[in-house]
Amino acid sequence: MNRVGKLALVAGILAIALAVPIAAAHLIFLYQAQVTVKPWTPVVWLNGTSSEVKAVNLKLSNTSPQISLTIPVTNSSGTYVSQALEVEAIVGSPYLYVANCSYTPGPTLTQVKLIVYPTTGSPTSPSGTITITPSSTSCTASGYVQLTAGTTYYIDFLVQPSLPIKNGVSSGTLTIYFGLTNQSSPTMVPAS
Fold first, then answer.
1. What average pLDDT is seen over the chain?
2. In what order do the strands lie in the sheet with 173-181?
3. Structural domain tally of the chain?
4. Domain that residue 152 falls in
5. What's the pLDDT tens digit per position in 68-78?
6. Is 63 helix (H, G, I), strand (E, B) or coil?
7. Prediction pTM value
8. Is residue 13 in some structural domain?
9. Closest by Cα among 83, 50, 71 to 176
10. How far apart are CA 104 and CA 26, in angstroms?
11. What does the pLDDT average to over 95-102?
């Protein structure tokens, strides 16, 4: 190799040696991470364990806290459905309340009480009660119950009809939309 060729080779190597740190200074390293976040519901809804659950045609969806209940009402002062529904508190201490409800015409009801108590307890000493007053045009609810994480609760229903019930009246269906909040006084949403 001649002298010019050697100088050209050395100059080329120097140019490459100088260009590498300059090019390396502009490298951007990309770190990509995938994070999977699972939504965590504060409660899980379950069908109750009593044989009466079949009699009331309870329909329950865990995708939303909605239940639909058809209760056979007789000419008695009240129909009591024990352990119709279970709710398991998973996290926190949420307040359970009825956000909305509706009643399709059937026997006139004076009120429906939801008695909430731990599965290890008794309905005679409930954690709380929620009272629903249904009519053919509206449905109102009052009361709420604070749940404790790690505890499973039964919800019993006491349906009190307006007596006497006329012969031939069809069954009514009460649809309840439950709500959960961490506030000590949940806001009630009127039925539409």
1. 75
2. 59-61, 66-70, 173-181, 95-103, 144-146
3. 1
4. 43-181
5. 666 677 777 88
6. coil
7. 0.69
8. no
9. 71
10. 70
11. 88
pLDDT of residue 10: 62
In a domain, 86, yes or no: yes
Q: Are 105 and 90 in contact (CB under 8 A)?
A: no
Percentage of residues of the chain with pLDDT beyond 90? 16
Strands 173-181 and 66-70: antiparallel
* Six token digits for residue 119: 């599965």
Q: Taking CA 83 as the corner, what is the angle to CA 114 and CA 57, rounded to the nearest 5 degrees?
A: 90
In a domain, 35, yes or no: no
| pLDDT band per the 50, 70, 90 thresholds, residue 190 | very low
- Strands 43-47 and 79-89 come out as antiparallel
Sheet with 152-161, edge to edge strand ranges: 43-47, 79-89, 152-161, 109-118, 128-134, 139-142
The residues, any chain, with a CB within 8 Å of residue 177's CB and separated by 6 or more, are: 64, 65, 66, 98, 99, 100, 101
pLDDT (tens digit per residue) in 28-61: 565 656 555 544 567 777 777 777 666 666 666 6
What CATH number has the domain bearing residue 148?
A: 2.60.120
Q: How far apart are CA 99 and CA 11, in angstroms?
A: 80
- How far is Cα 3 from Cα 6, in angstroms, rounded to an integer? 5
In a domain, 67, yes or no: yes
- Summarize the confidence of residues 165-169 as an average pLDDT: 79
